[in-house]
Amino acid sequence: MSIAQRQAWGETVSRLAGLDDRVIVLDGDLATSTRADIVAAEHPECFIEVGIAEQNMVGMAAGLTTVGYRPWLSSFGVFFTQRSLDQIRMLVSQTKAPVRLAAAYTGLLNGSSGKTHQDIEDLAVMRAMPGMTVLAPADAAEVRAATLWAAEHDGPVYLRLARDAVADVFADDVGFVVGAPRLLASGDDIVLVSTGVQTSRTARAAELLSGAGIAATHIHLPTLKPLDVEALLALIGEAETIVTVEEHSVLGGLGGLVAEALAERGSGARLHRIGLEDRWSESAPNDFLLDKYGLSAERVAERVRGILGR
Question: Percent helix, strand, coil in the chain (nearest 5)?
Fold first, then answer.
């Protein structure tokens, strides 16, 4: 089992802060949860506690970029994509400011904090934001690589991070090429496309399907925007059935992205989207939520068998 993504992010940014005095972290009174406290402890001169004032935090970060700083913002994803969205739109996206949004506690698995804190529409919101790079790494190793890439990028970045650790997908030395899909498995029966920490569960689902005699191609998209569409379509090939799996609404996120790519190619493939339907989530333990919304490895495999009639 890997360490949590938030831990990997905190450690990586702290290391960057020790190497580059332009790196600074602004936190929204959630440092112990997001692990921005690692930076605060190791490099207090690179840390600003803004408090519960996310809109102000975005404005401060945008201003800091004008004098050469390369800020990271640390908070829960829902506070970026909902509470401070106007500031992100006006001060960051429209100015192309190199502000990096480290969005912790995203997705469904934040039920212990209450459904108000769950963010199941963030990918759709940020995908539609002009100029915004949207990253959804699968595990801690990919978080480290994506964080290093984002640190050098000269525009806005939204980095989707999960609270809890998931099974490792990649080795520690994994690289990161923005926009590039990753092929995790090859099979002739069906294509599975996943993103973020859902990739770990989908990889397990592919193993369960293999045990049932179903060979799946599994593609992971760590970048939702920009995306090398031609590379994705090349990996999909002439597959007749494609299933997207995301810990997010089925509207506007990964499923929408793949649907757009297939439609523009004029593909006759049948697309099925696994994720949250057009409804709000709820407060509950993680395993219960994953099972209820069909995102556990077992439920994903069960859904795929149903799609194939097997």
Answer: 45, 20, 35
How far from 208 is each of 53, 276, 305, CA to CA, in Å? Answer: 45, 22, 10
Residues that are catalytic: 54
What is the number of helices (H) and of strands (E) in the chain? 13, 12
Print burial letters for 141-156: b (CB count within 10 Å at least 16), e (below 16): bbbbbbbebbbeeebb
Name the segment(s) of the chain with CATH classification 3.40.50.920.
182-308
User: Which residue blocks in 167-222 are alpha helix, DSSP H?
Assistant: 198-211
- Tell me, what DSSP letter sits at residue 119? B
5-160: CATH superfamily: Thiamin diphosphate (ThDP)-binding fold, Pyr/PP domains (3.40.50.970)
Residue 114 has pLDDT above 80, yes or no: no
Query: Tens digits of per-residue pLDDT, 141-156?
Result: 999 999 999 999 999 9
CATH fold for domain 182-308: Rossmann fold (3.40.50)
Place of tokens 């004029």: 266
